[in-house]
Amino acid sequence: MTAFDATRRAALLGAGATLAACAAPAPLVGPPARGENPFALGVASGEPAPDGFVIWTRLVRDPLAVAGGFEGVPAEDVAWDVARDKDFRDVVRQGTFRARGEDALSVHVELAGLEPARDYWYRFRARGQASQAGRARTAPAPGTLPARLRFAVCGCNHYEHGFFAAYRHLADEAPDFAFHYGDYIYESGAYRGTEPRARLHAGGVCRTLDDYRRRYAQYKSDPDLQAAHAATPFIMSFDDHEVANNWSATRSNASGESPEAFLARRNAALRAWYEHMPLRLSQKPSGQGVRMFRSLPFGDLAAMHVLDTRQYRTRQPCGDTIKPACAGMLAADAQIVGPAQERWLYERLADGRVRWNFIAQQVAMMRLDMGERTFNMDSWAGYVAQRDRLHAFLQRRRPANPVVLTGDWHKNWVGHLKADYDDPSSPVLAPEFLSTSISSDGDSLPSATTVRRHLSDNPHVRHYSGTRGYMAFALTPGRLEATLRAVGPVVRADASVRTLARFAVAAGDPNLHDA
Predict the structure, then answer these.
(1) Which residue among 17, 59, 185, 302 is least crowded, i.e. fewest CB within 10 A of its CB?
(2) Would you tell me which CATH number, out of the four given (3.40.190.170, 1.10.10.10, 3.40.50.720, 3.60.21.70), belongs to the domain 293-468+486-515?
(3) Does this model's pTM top 0.70?
């Protein structure tokens, strides 16, 4: 049994123990107890490039304690190894990273000089202990056209709404990478209602750096989330709950929170996000925010253009949430990505070097009428002018095979971006795959009447469903195939997985087809 397999087995046994405990109505706050393992938050990799990637860990003694139990420790040396094999017989890189207390003893090693399009394994050592091993994969080299690329889309993991079994199944599939669209944590305090919950947040609403660090540590103690990170590199983004519900730029959506207080809160939240994610030093936030939008190429086959729909947006119109259409939706100066990012996206899409262009972002882009012309103002529906400009660009410039990857809604929506949503005969510009949540909203499902109404009110939508899970994609030069994976019930740590639906898109034709 390899180190990775042994750790995987231990994680699954841990999940089983948690399941036995949750059979009782009393909720769990946890998991972890004090121990000697400084790698209790697991390992992760991300930002795959043709010659390397980032590997991550964070040292803790007690994940839920201030500074992870290392309060007052200024720095620690953490050794790391990268090998071509999972048994570490062929080590190709080694080094030591100086983890600093001011960065929560987090480790971000940026690797270069590796071979493209191949698997590597990595591990860390500190305080006489070794971490579990993780698998990472480099991207294909520029100028090459790989025959196949496999990736997943996932997000919205609410700790209190259910277990993260979907991540265990994603880990078993071991894709080339996963795109996490956001809501990695939820900032709310522990649930105080009477409805039973499988487990609870530790502490109150996150407002300070210590609050956010503890919340990340609680989430990252989950064995299934750790398994997914150890199985494949992640391309990370954030949405709103990494900071606060429906925030926009430097403004809180909550009443009574001053701009100064919210800016301090946002800066703390983004710093904690960086400390707990496999990100590059260039993505470390300053007091002015973080440069999250970026483009990651995968040879000449595809590029992932990751957007930021939070830091540059104007305030949501019409009072936010799902509201009837109002004049504010059409404001010419309304921005969801900001002018500079909009120009950057057009430049990336017009580059012309890849066969497929994935617009990887956080909130629904296609128009979704929730009934009687009501719309989610926190999505692109609240920023119609900027959405129309992007749609016009897609229609005019025709970049190679644009595909939108989205989340946030806690539902599966698969449909088309249209030149004119009120004209069924208008051109299809791109498909959009909006992935459901890992656990957020628990096992609640929309009624059959709701499903029929949403499909009727949105003829450009091919699929709508409310199960938990993720999406798995297989890409070739000529075809994209999407598999909707449903996992449940999420109140059980051993929830099973099944295929809910499959869709295909052919190169040169943006229309969705059953696969």
Answers:
(1) 17
(2) 3.60.21.70
(3) yes
